[in-house]
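During the reporting period the student researcher (J.K.) took over the structure-prediction task from the postdoctoral fellow and processed the backlog of single-chain submissions. One of the processed entries is reproduced below for the supervisory committee.
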Amino acid sequence: MNAVQRFIRSKVLLLTAAILIAAMCLSVLVQGQSQAALNRTVDENSRGLYDVLVQTNAGSGALMQPDIANGSGGITFDQLEAIRNLSGTSVAAPISLVSRVTQNLESPRLDAMDFLGYNAGLAGTAAADQAAGATAPEQWPAAESVLNDEPTKYRLTATAVSSDGVSETTLFKSTAEGTLGKAKLVEEQTEGGKSIRIAAPEGETGIKFPAPAGGSEHNLFNASISLPLAPEVTESVVAVDPAAERALLGSAGDFLAPLEKAPPADARDAGAIGRYFEGLFTNGISLEELDEGPDFLGVKLKYWAPLMTQYQQAKRSGQLTEDSQAIPLIVREGTSLDLRYNVKIEEIDDAGKVVKEVGTASRSLDKDYLPFVSKDPFALDWPGSTDHSALLGKTGNFNQGLYTPAEWSTDFAAAPKYTDGETAANGAVAKTAVPGEWVTVNRLPETGANGAPVDQTQREPVDERSYRENLETGEKVAAPLAMVYGTFSPATVAEAAGDVNKLPLGGYDPTPYTLVQDAQGKEVQAAELKPSLSATGLASQSAGAITDYYGLAAARGYTDNAAVIDAVRVRAAAPGSWKEAQPEVEKLAAEIRDMGLEATIVAGSAREDASIFVPGYSKDDAGKESDLGTVTQSWVRQDAADAVSGSLSGTNITLLFLTLCGAALLTGASTVSYIRKRRTEAGTLRAMGWTQRRIRNWVLEEFGVGAVLLAAAGIVLSLVSWSLPTVLVSAAVLALYAGAAYFAARQLRHRDEIDQEPQHDERLIPVDSPLTFANRQLATNKFNTLSLAVAVGVFGAAVGGLIALLIDIPRAAGASALSGLAATSVALPSILLALAGVLVGLVLTLVTGRFELNAKRQYLAILAAMGWNPDMLRQVRLFENALVGTVALPLGVLGALGIGLLLAPYAALWAGLAGLLAVLCWIPIATKVVQ
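J.K. obtained the following structure tokens:
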């Protein structure tokens, strides 16, 4: 017979080669799918809104903090124009911090329902104007009130409470007493006829909090009590180029469209614009214009009324001058500042004793808050009240907006500073925030709206820890006038910025901090930190407003080509994924660096949660400072795509190599064990005059058939996958198979006595139990026992290595959001690849164990004839495999530990444990299967 026929006749060689080829095909297929999923995941999530971040002081390290609009400036408009003129630039969008703005909200009030019903003299013609959405007079409900007919004495206790997300601080507590009752309509005779007015009940004193709060008054719907002012709130303002910013954000930036229509710098005189809106009100304005806002150079200014009233206040107080400019703003909707206003209402007697608990009215700033204006008046509802003001229909948005005009400052809070700590196994770097000075908040304005001094002793100042250095930039200029052009939603902007590939926009996209550990390092329930009143704390919210660079010049006094741009976000013109665009992006960054600027390539970056320890966060009444603990914040990991792709690709290839090379080693062990059965043939051929070399060549021809099949499979797989790793792994498998074949052929040297049991030797082990019989059989057939033990040990080591690689995937991937996503995408294929390796190894060890099966069946039959029961026979098989496992155990565990230390040091102990379990699990499986 020729070599092919002999190869087919020796079923063991055919079976082991077939198993190895099947393992190669399956493993390469799974590894290819895993690599494709990894590449797809990385490509889809590694290119954000821009590719290059240009700054003058970019900082060092692979982690980039989100505060890129940090007040540093340094980039001129000439440099911006030069960046835009580069051939590789698609969009170049500048951004800068403008100022910190302190605001006193419009006076809060408590509305107690005191609805007087329909009265033509008071409701006017608006009630009959159905087009305005007013309710017809006959449909008005009957009069109702939460107040008593006769004046009743009440005590109101107003408190404001702020929270940083961890603890609460009571900012003030103020009490006022007085009497309130149902109002009534009074008809009076006048020269022109009769008039109707609303009068308080006789004997009502009203309720008055200390100045600057007003008193109480009755209207058609409510009795309104003026409450103490809410604490001052400080907001930040950023400047952008509206057209470039819209190009950067796409459709999500449409909120900036009104800002593009803002008047040029020489047409923003605050006095002229204020007088224009005063004229509108004086000359008459339609209800539609009152609701939607009058047209101003193509923009409907919905919040024109606060602009006009603040202009009038600033003019009366002398805050505005001839040089004051109007600053167009797009303001933020809502606030993440946790500020709650509560009013406890008690009915009391003349002695001050509580007669009845009426209840507590509460309201937070929350989503109804708009910087510089008010979406609605800051009104709290008396318990049981119903708001009937909608009966008049649309009355227009005519709110004061702020108690006094906002105060703009030329110094503002820069980005927090951090020091680096330890680096974790996955590459994450621990940070420590650098605390600054204590900042005093919770102050009242120096004077009221009427110019009268305000008693500052009404409330205690509160100190907040600052983590942001004050940067004084620009020069003191004439006070500007805020001009609200529209609103934007931080949540919508954050969504447009992406998730995994999120890049900081600079100031108006929120980047919250989340507390995860206390000061002692203990895990706590995750809590998001809330921004401070001073806007200098660690946590900050989205900028309160966005303006253009003419607005920046008006607030900070810059002209011409000033270096006021903090950062420029540049999108390259190159299309495609980050990898496809990488050469062009690198070229663009190099050209920008040639201008003397720092250009950081952020294409291929990903979001990563940085762990930050926060010291000196709070202090008690004695002045003792306390640490907060550890918080996390979303930063940017540069070159995350390259790192993730490289590490997980390496893990994929290592899994493939370990799976197939482990299978090849087990095939070699099986082959060596099997070849011992052919010594009889070798002896016969030797007796016929064959030389030892000719016998070896005769056997090697059979192995050559298997090698050709393996080589053909490797070539086909390499061509299909078109992958260098597949070529290398296939070559390694072929080399291991050829080496095992050569070693097996060397074992065919003929001997006169082969495994011949000596007779009458005192060293013979007496057979008195299944254990001693199993021990004797294995000791008698040492070569096969050692071959099987080596195979099982290799199996255990391979399993340990595979498990270690699987466990190490999250660490190898890194700490970025892309790392987690990519690790998830390759998890299932990697598990399948490892399982394939485990199953192939298990099958090959079982095949090796069947080589002496006929001999085992013979002596088991003899033992059965001698009276051994089935349980004893099963114990013989179990003890044989257990003793083989005992020999294999050190090799399996030590091999697994060695592979783990080499490939995945952080999971080496798990590798050793997996190797131990693999060998232990092999014992019952082999006992059950090999019978």
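The committee noted the following: The longest helix spans residues 640-675.
J.K. will present the remaining backlog at the next meeting.
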